[in-house]
Design goal:
Oligomer: single chain
Largest sheet: none
Radius of gyration: 27 Å
Helix content: over 70%
Number of helices: 16
Number of strands: 0
Shape: elongated
Distance between the termini: 68 Å
Order of helices and strands: HHHHHHHHHHHHHHHH
Length: about 375
């Protein structure tokens, strides 16, 4: 379960009731979508099906389902019940459910949205796995640095003192690491804690900005995040346009589902140009990060009937690119970090030892 649905968020809401409700996670949206689909297929009606639902997501999701059931028992339609929830599901989900009801195709809409939510979950799990190994390597390097500063450097400093030689720069650096080990180690831990708190706050108060968005500045992860955004954008656009939602409106809903600023700007400007009766301009097609196939599809060259099909194909291509990039990072980045961090520690310690041996050699001569 994504941290939006974790007990930490529920406890924080009880302790601080003025905090806004935690936004929906993709996992919660997928589970609610499955409950709606099961209730629809059961033949007993959405109200009764949701009232007796026991979703796998736990307490918060169970409350969501029962809240929907109560609202519909009181005469609200499904879109009205969704809009009255606290917090409400994403706007694009409410719109596409309403579109499915109007077109008597709610089951098909829920199936499509389920596939979209699974796509998002798969991408996020892939991205998280790609970030696990670098964190393991960095944590190992941190622990080894503390161990060396606490247990190995004192022996080296005592040896230098016994020799009564002038400490060189590497020896003074090692001594500084030893004397201030508590300060710099706690500083690193507190810095990471503050960073994680910032990510937590961004995820709670600005939905769509999570840990992945904060990792976009790390080499390799920026392109990974961009391919994931392209896959989400294409898949969601395909669903919205397939069920008759106009392309400009679809672009605006998709804007809130992605994190890349260039793509967000592209969605806004493309929606404006299409509403004004123009095709997507060449200037806009030069937006950084927008692949040629997606440009060609949205420019109208493929024809309106093929738009959803082409967007589905684009989503699959971008999903495969994301998985390939994540697999590559999972193989390459841990080795690079291990070599770079390990080499730094080894060279620092070797530099210190060699400087001591050099001083000893000068004394003997």
């Amino acid at each position: 379960m994504d941290s939006f649905g974790s007990p930490v968020f529920a406890v924080s809401r009880r302790l601080f009731p003025l905090l806004p409700a935690a936004p929906w996670s993709s996992e919660e949206l997928l589970l609610l979508n499955e409950e709606l689909l099961l209730a629809l297929r059961s033949g007993v009606g959405l109200e009764l099906g949701l009232r007796n639902a026991e979703p796998a997501g736990g307490g918060r999701l169970r409350e969501f389902a029962r809240s929907l059931s109560r609202s519909m028992d009181q005469g609200a339609s499904l879109p009205q019940a969704l809009a009255a929830m606290d917090p409400p599901p994403p706007a694009m989900y409410q719109v596409i459910v309403a579109t499915g009801l109007r077109g008597n195709a709610l089951e098909s809409v829920l199936i499509r949205m389920g596939s979209f939510a699974r796509l998002v979950n798969d991408l996020r799990q892939t991205l998280r796995r790609a970030m696990i190994y670098p964190w393991i390597v960095a944590t190992t390097a941190f622990v080894l640095s503390v161990f060396m500063s606490v247990f190995m450097v004192p022996q080296l400093l005592a040896f230098v003192e016994d020799l009564r030689v002038e400490p060189t720069f590497p020896i003074r650096l090692a001594g500084w690491l030893h004397h201030y080990v508590r300060e710099w180690s706690l500083g690193i831990i507190l810095g990471l804690g503050l960073w994680w708190g910032l990510v937590w706050g961004l995820r709670r108060f600005t939905p769509g900005q999570g840990a992945l968005g904060q990792m976009a500045c790390v080499p390799g992860f920026s392109s990974l995040a961009r391919w994931a955004d392209l896959a989400r954008l294409s898949h969601l656009l395909a669903i919205l346009t397939e069920f008759g939602i106009p392309l400009p409106e679809s672009l605006r809903y998709c804007r809130d589902a992605i994190q890349d600023r260039n793509l967000q700007q592209f969605c806004d400007q493309a929606a404006v140009e299409i509403e004004q009766g123009r095709t997507v301009s060449e200037r806009l097609l030069l937006t950084p990060g927008v692949p040629t196939f997606l440009q060609w599809t949205l420019s109208g060259a493929a024809g309106p009937h093929d738009l959803a099909t082409n967007l589905h194909q684009a989503a699959e291509v971008y999903r495969e690119r994301t998985l390939q990039r994540a697999e590559w990072l999972g193989r390459i980045l841990p080795g690079v970090l291990a070599v770079s961090l390990g080499a730094t520690l080894v060279l620092l310690y070797a530099w210190t030892v060699i400087s001591v041996l050099r001083a000893l050699w000068e004394i003997l001569l």
